[in-house]
Design a protein that fits this description.
two-stranded antiparallel sheet, mainly alpha
Length: about 160
Amino acid sequence: MVLNRAWQSIPGSVIVALLEQVRTRVLRFALDIKDNLPSDATTATSVPASVVERSVVNNIFHGDVLIASNIEYTNQITNQNISVGDFASLSKALEQIGINAEGIKALSDIRTEQPSSSGLGEKAKGWLADMSNYLGKEGVKLGAEVAKRAAMKWLTQFYGLDI
C-alpha cells in the first residue's frame, strides 16, 4: 500500500485566528521591551538579555517551555517568570505548586511591602517561613523545600530583586 495523495482542509477562520494570535504575541513582546528601555536609550540593545529572554518566554511561549529529550520520553520544564509587580501571575504560579487560597490571601495582604536593601522585606520573609502552612496536597507532593525555593525565586522576581 502506498499513499499517493493526502490533504487537510483548514477553514479560513483558523488562519485568521492564527495570524491574530501571532500579531498579539509580537505586540505584547514589543511593548514589554519598550517598557524596559531606559529613558535615554536610542536602541533596544540597551535592554539586558535576561529581560529579553523573560519577555520571550512570557509573551511568545506563555511561560511554558516544552523540551523533548527523545522519542520515548518527554520532559516538561516550566520556566515561570514573574514580571515586577504582576501579582496575578505570581498567585497563579504559587497555586500551581500547591499554595492554597489562604496563603495567596496572606501574600496579597503584604504585596505592597517594599523590599529591604538586603533583599525581601520582613513580612515576605515571614510568609516564606510559614509557607508550609499554606501547602495543599499538591504542595506536599512537590515537597516543601522545593516549593519554598520556587516561591522565593518568584517573590524576588515580583519585587524586582536580582538575587
